[in-house]
Amino acid sequence: MNENERNEQWRERIRAYRESGQTMRAWCAAQEIPFNQLKYWLRKLSPGKRKSPTTTWVTVTPTPPSSAEASPLVVRIGSASIDIRPGFDASLLTQVVRVLEAGC
């Protein structure tokens, strides 16, 4: 069987599958055709076959975050949350936590 004949055979199978109203798996099982084969031919013979997007490579240079940009440590007490960043005032944090504990 040449390529044109094989393509035509699969066009006919795809038409029959679509007209059957069955799921792909059910139709393939009834026809004793591997499910992946039907998926392949559906993609291969689809009229609006999508092109792969063009890949563009860019150079990314990571920089270490400054202390101001560092991710905060998040402390949650009840429904309150506190973002703690480098250089925080430990005594102020202690006071805030105590107030939140008393209120929760």
The portion of residues assigned to helices is: 40-55%
The residue ranges in which pLDDT falls below 50 over 5 or more consecutive positions are none
Mean pLDDT: 82
Instruction: Sum up the overall morphology in one term.
Output: elongated
The number of helical runs is: 4
Query: What distance separates the N and C termini?
Result: 78 Å
Please give the number of β-strands. 2
**Radius of gyration (Å):** 31 Å
Fraction of residues in β-strands: 5-15%
What's the arrangement of strands in the largest beta sheet? 1-2
**Helix/strand class:** mainly alpha
| Helix-strand string | HHHEEH
Biggest sheet architecture: 2 strands, antiparallel
Summarize the structure.
The chain has helices at residues 3-20, 24-31, 35-45, 90-103; strands spanning 73-77, 80-84. The chain is mainly α.
Summarize the structure in words:
This protein has helices at 3-20, 24-31, 35-45, 90-103; strands spanning 73-77, 80-84. With 104 residues, the protein is mainly α. Strands 1-2 form a two-stranded antiparallel ribbon. β1 (73-77) and β2 form a beta hairpin. The termini are far apart. It comes from Marinicrinis lubricantis. This is IS66 family insertion sequence element accessory protein TnpB. Residues 49-70 are annotated as: Disordered.
